[in-house]
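so my prof wants the structure for this chain in the tokens format not the other one, which i didnt know existed until like an hour ago. anyway here's the sequence
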Amino acid sequence: MSGAAIVMMLVAMVVIWGGLAFAILHLSRNSPTIDEVHRDL
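here's what i got, hopefully its the right format
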């Protein structure tokens, strides 16, 4: 692989895993109540 391909792969991995980590932290800090979960049903 070329250097540019490796850099792009690392950037994509940071975006994906960083987004996942942010989502998990956000959910753990702001856990929704049962009314918020079922409000659209």
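also thought this was worth mentioning. The chain is about 75% helix and 0% strand.
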